[in-house]
């Protein structure tokens, strides 16, 4: 008897789409959109500083692809309170008006930024680490991680039957100063995940990052050995570090004062939330003169040599209540962000002229630690969550590639190193690049979002455009190009990349520039002249110069 024909239909699961508009190919400006069955959410909304443009303006993600697709996210979900994850929200969110979900500290920082711009803050909702929420076709759970600011969370995103872990920023700190160490069981319990969208910042670094407790001990030892007044500079957003410095000051019999608006804001908001309970009572800067020098410690912003920040004002003798002098010490407890090396050198030179003693992590590496995972941490974490696929984000191309290589070593599928503007599909066959949307850089200019001059964003992009990004490293005598040119052009005429790269290298040999902005200004006309010689029609050119860390700076 013939058997009835049974039709076996494979259950096809609806795909998921990802669209990063920031954070890929760069460190900063994180924004990733997720789509499932036509419903969208946005994760993080950060900014970055364009050190290669005059005045170092803020850059925010370009939302044009969303306008082209006619979509707005139903919610903005924030992983943690760092500027590269929240700094653009007060600029971009008004276009969406959607609910924002953030942990208490990130929510407090966002509220303060929104209030500064006169925006209503009732869309900002607090979610505690460990809690879950449903938005559109997504179910999300906030999973606590360690980083350099409390309440950092990974997001477990469930879309249909697929589960994605969007890590945000993290490290495996066995002894963080604020909050608990990572609970491995939480992560083992979610294994295996279909996809991890992961932090690539320190993927080229072998070994394990330093714990914040180790830095706290090193700082205390360093401060205990010093006489005279002590100024310690770090990022305001590194709250673990701010606490470590405060505690060390108290143990060494010093009173603490804060310098810098962002430092004051961070400490005020964190204290309001019950963090920093054992932070010493603060002394106003104008009262420091009444204290003996050995009882003074100042925590100041400006570790990157920013000319308007507290430390530069001190170095230039422009602070009304505090003058540095011989016998005082300045400790740098922050990494040098690539591209700032020369500004930092200039600051250190000015500080030396005042006769102060300088301490930094070049000679005492334990004075700083990275907030991002090194290779051993990535391996341990991926052993816990057993991801099938990896999408390496939060990094420059070389960080993403190192992350990709580590994944393939662990038999995790990682076919892509995404760029901003890539529409990526995750389906039963894995990850694919579906299409690429060209983005135009947007900066904040006179309180408004504007395209970078000369980037072609002013017109409707009908013209030929050429986007060129160059990575450089500062060296003793100037700037050296690192890696390949990153070219993206709609230009019909062929362009000889090797010849262009050679020309750029020749120019770099001749250019004397103290900052990326000066370098860009000097390089641009030469490059335009070369293009005019080699192409029939000169396109609109957007040039972006990234600085990369040199060997000496590795391990930050
Ligand atoms: Zn972070
Ligand atoms: Zn980040």
Q: What's the architecture of the largest domain in CATH terms?
A: 4-Layer Sandwich
In this entry the ligands are: zinc ion
CATH topology of the largest domain: Metallo-beta-lactamase, Chain A
pLDDT averaged over residues: 90
Per CATH, the class of the largest domain reads Alpha Beta
Count of helical stretches:
14
What is the SS-derived class? alpha/beta
Helix percentage: 25-40%
Strand order of the largest sheet: 8-7-6-3-2-1-20-21
Global geometry: globular
Structural summary, described in words:
This protein is α/β, with parallel strands linked by helices and 556 residues long. The chain folds into 3 domains: 16-207 and 370-436, Ribonuclease Z/Hydroxyacylglutathione hydrolase-like (Metallo-beta-lactamase, Chain A, 4-Layer Sandwich); 212-367, 3-Layer(aba) Sandwich (Rossmann fold); 454-551, Ubiquitin-like (UB roll). The protein has an 8-stranded mixed beta sheet, with helices on one face. A 6-stranded mixed beta sheet has the order 9-10-11-12-13-19, covered by helices on one side. The protein has a 5-stranded parallel beta sheet with strand order 15-16-14-17-18, sandwiched between helices. α6 (212-224) runs parallel beside α7 (239-251) and α13 (497-510) crosses α14. The model is unreliable at 456-462 and 551-556 (pLDDT under 50). Bound molecules: zinc ion (2 copies).
